[in-house]
Write a structure and sequence with these properties.
Chains A, B: Belongs to the class-I pyridoxal-phosphate-dependent aminotransferase family. 2 copies of one chain form a homodimer. Chain A is an alpha/beta fold. The first copy, chain A, has 2 domains: 153 residues, Aspartate Aminotransferase, domain 1 (Alpha-Beta Complex); 237 residues, Aspartate Aminotransferase, domain 2. Helices cover 37% and strands 13% of the residues of chain A. Chain A has 13 helices and 13 strands. Chain A has an 8-stranded mixed β-sheet with strand order 2-9-8-7-6-3-4-5, with helices on both faces. In chain A, strands 10-13-12 form a 3-stranded antiparallel β-sheet, covered by helices on one side. In chain A, strand 3, helix 6 and strand 4 form a beta-alpha-beta unit. The two termini of chain A are 37 Å apart. The interface between A and B is large, with 65 and 65 residues.
Chain lengths: 404, 404
């Protein structure tokens, strides 16, 4: 195996959301118990933008961008200045901290693009990077791709209130032993844990005192459920000197088909990210950038309705899992649930394939998010409410069928 | 300077097309001779999609993709299967060699995205990569970013017919001494040289016999002028076993604002590229992929008219430069000219800034394409014909004004 073979073996993407169609499912029949279920297929690997459609006006904004022509097609690599001005002002208000549109913001092809650029700008051969477990699966892959070393930090997510959060002792130990970068998501993907004000303050203090660069993925921070509160690291008085915050309209706002994200924070890092973007993909598609006109600028009441719709789905799915005796944490924000499977007669990976084959339900295996969460499955419940409920009932029946 | 500082110093993008707006131009007044010119500003750093508008139907195809909804938003990372089927068939016909839509094609965010993925899939720490000089500026930057080593191969472009082309002796010497990858563009960017059938055959033979992976950027291969012929490396009977061809609709077809490109060739490399795309930006924007419906599928006569319009501009600009005694090769394809500046009283970099300040003309300095072409400037002449002619007249007057 060459160095490149190894590098790309670590990037295996067959279980990544949306890629399941490329799996070889022959051989599954030998272990199958019982027949197929009837019911609407549900793909919980990503949100359903037909059930929760894109922000009103987004397609019209695209069309307006197209009609602007060349100026909109060929923006600066960091994105069109006029759009950055508007978005920066709204992000400053949302996060409670000022933001320079000129030097502290870059528009990227999706939040995935933002994460790639942020880690590319801060990780090279030998860089130690603290990665929370479980967390978004690409974080670890990106660190390895850039030649860095993953230093795991455990996240508690099954507990009540302040029990949840990162292991701060592990985090400080990592920082003490030469970790230069911390990357994490809050709300956490896949568990829906929102880092508490205390945890965010502690991260700010520790990162500042050890000189650690922090990349915080706040993709789901707008989809916050009743009674929850959210703390923005960048607004902390002790926020670290090197800090990148990542957001985007792909999830809550259902603009995933536009591939738009933003990264904002330390100017020197944004400058590096733009240099990298220049060789990666030049810029987020010019006409698509125009759709950011609608972002953080939705019609009155639109976001409340979207949150309410998701909260109702969340509550019903969590009740169903719990009534069946399946452990699941209640997500505080976002649209992921991460139930834990009981012992089964097949491996979790095979069970996930059987779910798709027998029950027309696609979920993402927990092994994508941390080595230690192999026995969990992630569901993005941004789906048609009724279809999601029916699909979770099928998952529960499948669990009963395959229980060890 | 840290390892990351060095890595990003090598990615300086201030002179990259479209980024000139971020330059510090203070201090220019001290060397300025004479006043400002009147005239329509012309940005030769990229094509003018207002003068040469996007393929008919492209915006409508986007709208149709948006209306398809979730299925179009969340395609496989390598792109929507139905679109790949159509594009693969058209590319097979265009290049004269079969192509599997399932395993040999990936849709990317622009051809820049395709180049990034192709080099990322083939270059790691220590990989020796043959890079033609001059050639597209990102090629060298990408090799360095991935930790590879650039092995330069000279291109002759000022000569007549078969004088032009890569130095095959240098190429073989590079292959003999451990070079594992060759990347080049034909038509060459910035000179417009089309590699001859003989040169393509020689590259095929050499790459096959030394086991070298080849990445060939054919972005401009459709904009071929009267009397010229084009040879596709992938159709050569001795084409190398590891070969990626890159194309896209950003230039000739003016779909740059959609950020769409394709890479096609060896299935194992396409598979790697998809794994990399999964952590870089997931996929080309889903709705945008729908615009590929129009690609290689334009209305009858549309491409002929586009070629004729560009050929007329090319002929007039070349005549103007030559009448002023300025050396310039006639591009055989594409929309770049690469005239050589005479000795000036200011450096070529400062002259390029003065052109923008005094003459409202933006060009790309030759140093972006090779260390040895500092005294040339690149013009993308896909512009309004009259405005381009007037702007070149201003360039010529500026050259007179600053002649050493």
């Amino acid at each position: 195996m060459t160095a490149l073979d190894q590098k790309f073996a670590a990037l295996a993407a067959d279980n990544a959301p949306g890629q399941e169609v490329r799996q070889d499912m022959s051989g599954l029949d030998a272990v199958m118990k019982g027949g197929l279920f009837n019911g609407t297929p549900v793909d919980f690997s990503h949100g359903d933008v037909d059930a929760h459609p894109p922000t009103p006006g987004s397609a019209e904004a695209w069309q307006a961008g197209f009609e602007v022509g060349g100026q909109q097609a060929y923006t600066e690599y960091r994105g069109a200045a006029a759009i950055r001005e508007k978005v920066a002002a709204r992000l400053a208000e949302f996060t409670g901290h000022p933001l320079s549109a000129d030097s502290e913001l870059i528009i990227t092809p999706g939040t995935q693009g933002a994460l790639f650029l942020a880690l590319g700008a801060t990780v090279t051969n030998g860089t130690k990077v603290a990665v929370v477990e479980p967390d978004y699966f690409a974080n670890r892959k990106l660190v390895v791709f850039f030649g860095g070393e993953v230093v795991p930090v455990a996240l508690t997510y099954g507990g009540q209130g302040s029990d949840n959060g990162p292991d701060l002792a592990q985090l400080e130990a990592a920082f003490k032993s030469g970790t230069e970068v911390l990357v994490f998501s809050t709300p956490n993907n896949p568990t829906g844990v929102v880092y508490s004000a205390q945890d965010i303050a502690a991260i700010a203090r520790l990162a500042s005192s050890y000189g650690v660069t922090v990349i915080v993925d706040q993709l789901y921070s707008r989809l916050l459920y009743t009674g929850e509160s959210y703390t923005h690291l960048r607004a902390d008085p002790q926020a670290p000197g090197n800090l990148i915050t990542i957001m985007g309209p792909s999830k809550t706002e259902s603009l995933s088909g536009f591939r738009l994200g933003v990264a904002f924070g330390t100017a020197a890092l944004i400058e590096r990210m733009e240099r990298l973007q220049a060789i990666v993909s030049l810029r987020a598609a010019g006409y698509n950038q125009a759709a950011l006109e609608t972002w953080l600028n939705e019609p009155e009441g639109w976001m409340d309705a979207r949150i309410a719709a998701h909260q109702a789905i969340r509550d019903e799915l969590v009740s169903l899992f719990r009534a069946a005796g399946i452990e699941v944490a209640v997500p505080q924000a976002g649209s992921y649930v991460f139930p834990k499977l009981p012992d089964l007669s097949v491996s979790p990976e095979v069970f996930v394939q059987l779910l798709r084959r027998q029950a027309a339900v696609t979920v993402t295996p927990g092994s994508e998010f941390a080595p230690g969460t192999r026995d969990s499955i992630r569901l993005n419940f941004s789906q048609d409410h009724e279809a999601a409920v029916a699909a979770v009932k099928r998952i529960i029946e499948m669990i009963e069928r395959y229980k060890a």
